């Protein structure tokens, strides 16, 4: 999964990043309002952890941008303010959850997973697309009920495809999703072809048929 942590308390920001990266997640950070606004406008995330009191602006205004841009990321607001008014305002604007500082990182992680289950997996921990099934809790993919061994990147790529089925995904978007900010350091995106080719082989013909090449544009995951 790919997360954005928009938090101006650097120690807390890095603690959240370290905790979430233990499960192999890609974590990007924003330390002020401008960074957060730019990143939510340009990039796609599975979940956004959003401080309500960012330097130079309000996290609620970032939330308004997320909703205006119709982003599909789950949003969890974190705040030192425990006022009912702020909670209601955040939730009314479309946040999926609200947690008050200080909090345990394990609790934040559980809330992120709950938001992802509700938003991406229809309240379940299992994603199903025809012959393909993904157990998001164990990070295991199946083709016709037979488990297949995917690398971490291949697994994330498959989840990204199914979560965005019907949408053309450019190599730039795929690279940014899989590598986050590090994708800016890449000289080319040839390795995307390698990962997709390997994923197609492991899905066998029965699953690979859904990954279509959109010539000159990227790739699209659609019904055969």
From TrEMBL:
Keywords: DNA-binding, Phosphoprotein, Transcription, Transcription regulation, Two-component regulatory system. Residues 2-116 form the Response regulatory domain. The modification 4-aspartylphosphate is found at residue 51. Residues 124-223 form the OmpR/PhoB-type domain. Residues 124-223 bind DNA. The lineage of its organism: Bacteria, Pseudomonadati, Bacteroidota, Flavobacteriia, Flavobacteriales. SMART domains: REC, Trans_reg_C. It holds the Pfam family Response_reg. InterPro entries: CheY-like_superfamily (IPR011006), OmpR/PhoB-type_DNA-bd (IPR001867), Sig_transdc_resp-reg_receiver (IPR001789), WalR-like (IPR039420), WH-like_DNA-bd_sf (IPR036388). It comes from Polaribacter batillariae. This is Response regulator transcription factor. It comes from the Bacteria.
């Amino acid at each position: 999964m790919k997360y954005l942590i928009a938090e101006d308390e650097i120690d807390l920001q890095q603690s959240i990043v370290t905790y979430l990266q233990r499960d192999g997640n890609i974590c990007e950070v924003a330390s002020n309002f401008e960074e957060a606004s730019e990143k939510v406008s340009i990039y796609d995330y599975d979940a956004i952890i959003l401080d309500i009191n960012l330097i130079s602006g309000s996290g609620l205004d970032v939330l308004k941008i997320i909703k205006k841009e119709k982003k599909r990321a789950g949003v969890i607001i974190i705040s030192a303010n425990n006022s009912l008014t702020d909670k209601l305002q955040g939730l009314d604007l479309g946040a999926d959850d609200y947690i008050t500082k200080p909090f345990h990182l394990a609790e934040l992680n559980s809330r992120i997973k709950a938001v992802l289950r509700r938003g991406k997996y229809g309240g379940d921990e299992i994603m199903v697309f025809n012959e393909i099934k993904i157990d998001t809790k164990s990070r295991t993919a199946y083709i016709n009920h037979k488990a297949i061994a995917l690398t971490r990147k291949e697994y994330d790529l498959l989840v990204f495809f199914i979560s965005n089925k019907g949408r053309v995904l450019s190599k730039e978007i795929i690279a940014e999703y899989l590598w986050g900010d590090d994708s800016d350091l890449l000289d080319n995106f040839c390795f995307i072809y390698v990962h997709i080719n390997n994923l197609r082989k492991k899905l066998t013909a029965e699953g690979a048929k859904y990954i279509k090449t959109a010539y000159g544009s990227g790739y699209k995951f659609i019904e055969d």
